[in-house]
User: Which sequence fits this backbone?
């Protein structure tokens, strides 16, 4: 049987494991709460306070745990500030809670895959 | 045997688990969703939950809720809005109440703030970071927990961005670091502006140290300038509001404050650290030693002039600025001394073995793990569930919110919550309440008066500001009729009386029953809602008085 190697895990695997670990920690801490509520809470915390800033952290090299902690700070700043200004522009916090993470994650994807995008563009120019 | 990487992951996971368990699990009775606010022990808990609810329902913090400012509908949203937006979004998606999500967001961010400081120290020295982390959980003293227990949530958010800012400063040589500098300073500006001011002070202090030590390179200066420019653009809108509200109403004046106004009797002092204060003293001694003897600094592989270590010195000093006029802001900063000073406490353990030998990884984790367990059990049982409000009173508040017209005037007779009037904001109606001196006078004379004097509760901490233009503000507190805005007891639409439950002044609750009966004796007043503790009466003919 093949041995599980932590070094071969991608960040996507690590993100999935962090999500599961967060659910386990929350379920143990809030053992009086039903599991659906725990999953919902952790999922929303990831949606609002982890994922929006994750992509931007790929501007720098660092370990996953450090990246995760940094993405929480970046997400909190991005989401809080953007939602405030969206609110002033008449877009409600309810809309922001759905739209903003999508926008920031899309921007994050551009950062994560910037090398591939650049390579693709160069390849097309050569053709 | 565990390798170093896995040991670190497990260690951090245990730390996060302990922090969440102690700071939110315990006081929340190990559940997430609650039927009424839990662990709300002061005005500010209710205040931030109410503002989050307002943002959730109204979509933005452009204006201050009308019921918080005595009925004025044009008061600019002057409270730092970042937390309220985050809480509103989390509440919207989870379906949890904003009084729950406000605290969840605060604790979630704080935990990762600790981890960012850990990684900032790790940049200086990995072993030092591992030894410092348990001290962030720290020894239990209620003074350290007051920020959460008394609802200083926006201060905690501001501090969280300070932690992130320290990580950023520790990694400032990286390309594009100005983005993070701009983001975190903006987070502070819109999260809790005091921390932004302190952080800019620290930035100047750190750059001055660097300048006199090695000189600054052009790249770094360019990054700082660029970061501050972007931050200014992002935050300018709120900073203008901040200037015309908080800074105008509460300008800096030289003064001495000996007890924190938010919790007299609970100031954090170095003595609050108990035995761990000696780790601070020893660590600072080693720090001075490293500054003076470069050879030792090299030998132990710790750069004494690192941002995260210098921040310890800086925020220690800021904590004592209550003696020159920073008042409650200085006392608030002290609450996070366990985080700012953690590197000194870690240094106290780290220095000697590192100077004369070499730390083995298994001993590092053994000591750090032991400290973590000691601090965990020191905290265990420290924070209990409960709070100021119980289910029945909350149900009464919610009845008002859901069943009365938005402009209804509600008159609150005595209850313990009148001393924490922000709690009444939950009704989303302008809170009028009985003048307590007049009410107590009634008890003393053993009479139910025909009419009691009434007061209005409104946030006047920034003089109730409204905007005439971007740079032009007026203040309702200067309005000629500002002081005479209570319509009087008989002009109210509803009366809210607490007639049961546990109250520190049971005589006043008994008196409420007599007053309630007197009101019900009037033909134009009828019961509208009642439970075991609360009675709400409806006045069908506001303005009519008994003959």
Assistant:
């Amino acid at each position: 049987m093949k041995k599980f190697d932590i070094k071969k895990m991608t960040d996507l695997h690590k993100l999935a494991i962090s999500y599961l670990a967060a659910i386990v920690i929350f379920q143990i801490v809030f053992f009086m709460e039903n599991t659906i509520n725990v999953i919902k809470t952790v999922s929303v915390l990831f949606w609002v306070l982890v994922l929006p800033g994750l992509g931007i952290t790929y501007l720098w090299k660092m370990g996953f745990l450090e990246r995760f902690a940094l993405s929480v700070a970046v997400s909190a700043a991005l989401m809080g500030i953007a939602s405030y200004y969206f609110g002033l522009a008449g877009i409600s916090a309810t809309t922001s809670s759905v739209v903003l993470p999508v926008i920031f994650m899309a921007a994050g994807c551009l950062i994560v895959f910037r090398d591939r995008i650049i390579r693709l563009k160069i390849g097309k120019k050569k053709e | 045997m565990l390798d170093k990487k896995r040991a670190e992951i497990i260690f951090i996971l245990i730390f996060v688990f302990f922090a969440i368990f102690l700071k939110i699990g315990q006081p929340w009775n190990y559940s997430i969703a609650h039927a009424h606010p839990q662990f709300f022990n002061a005005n500010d808990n209710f205040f931030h939950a109410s503002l989050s609810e307002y943002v959730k329902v109204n979509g933005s913090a452009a204006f201050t809720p009308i019921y918080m400012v005595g009925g004025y509908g044009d008061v600019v949203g002057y409270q730092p809005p970042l937390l309220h937006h985050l809480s509103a979004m989390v509440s919207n998606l989870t379906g949890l109440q904003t009084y729950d999500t406000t605290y969840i967001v605060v604790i979630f961010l704080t935990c990762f703030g600790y981890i960012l400081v850990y990684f900032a120290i790790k940049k200086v020295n990995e072993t030092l970071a591992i030894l410092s982390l348990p001290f962030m959980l720290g020894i239990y003293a209620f003074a350290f927990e007051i920020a959460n227990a008394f609802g200083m949530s926006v201060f905690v958010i501001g501090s969280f961005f300070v932690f992130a800012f320290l990580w950023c400063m520790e990694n400032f040589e990286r390309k594009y670091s100005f983005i993070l500098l701009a983001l975190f300073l903006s987070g502070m500006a819109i999260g809790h502006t005091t921390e932004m001011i302190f952080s800019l002070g620290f930035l100047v202090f750190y750059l001055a140290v660097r300048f006199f030590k090695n000189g600054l390179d052009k790249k770094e200066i360019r990054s700082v300038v660029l970061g501050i420019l972007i931050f200014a653009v992002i935050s300018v809108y709120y900073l203008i509001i901040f200037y015309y509200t908080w800074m105008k109403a509460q300008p800096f004046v030289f003064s001495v404050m000996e007890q924190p106004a938010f919790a007299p009797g609970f100031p954090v002092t170095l003595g609050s650290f108990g035995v761990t204060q000696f780790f601070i003293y020893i660590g600072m001694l080693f720090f001075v030693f490293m500054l003076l003897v470069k050879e030792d600094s090299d030998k132990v592989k710790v750069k004494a002039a690192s941002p995260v270590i210098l921040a310890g010195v800086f925020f220690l000093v800021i904590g004592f600025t209550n003696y020159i006029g920073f008042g409650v802001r200085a006392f608030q900063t002290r609450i996070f001394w366990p985080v700012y000073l953690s590197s000194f406490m870690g240094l106290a353990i780290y220095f000697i073995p590192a100077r004369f030998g070499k730390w083995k990884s298994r001993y590092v984790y053994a000591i750090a793990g032991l400290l973590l367990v000691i601090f965990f059990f020191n905290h265990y049982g420290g924070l209990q569930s409960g709070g100021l409000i119980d289910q029945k009173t909350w149900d009464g508040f919610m009845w008002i919110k859901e069943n009365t017209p938005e402009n209804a005037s509600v008159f609150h007779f005595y209850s313990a919550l009148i001393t924490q009037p922000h709690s009444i904001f939950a009704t989303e109606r302008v809170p009028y309440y009985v003048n307590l001196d007049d009410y107590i006078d009634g008890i003393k004379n053993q009479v139910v008066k025909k009419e009691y004097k009434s007061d209005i509760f409104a946030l006047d901490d920034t003089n109730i500001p409204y905007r005439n233009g971007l740079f032009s503000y007026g203040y309702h507190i200067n309005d000629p009729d500002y002081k005479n805005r209570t319509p009087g007891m008989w002009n109210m639409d509803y009366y809210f009386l607490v007639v049961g439950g546990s109250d520190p002044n049971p005589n006043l609750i008994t008196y409420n029953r007599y007053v309630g009966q007197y009101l019900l004796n009037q033909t134009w007043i009828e019961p509208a809602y009642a439970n075991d503790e609360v009675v709400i009466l409806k006045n069908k003919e506001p303005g009519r008085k008994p003959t």
In short: Chain B touches chain A through 69 residues (CB under 8 Å). The beta strands of chain B are 410-412, 431-434, 454-456, 465-469, 472-475, 494-498, 525-530, 534-539. The first strand of chain B starts at residue 410 and ends at 412.
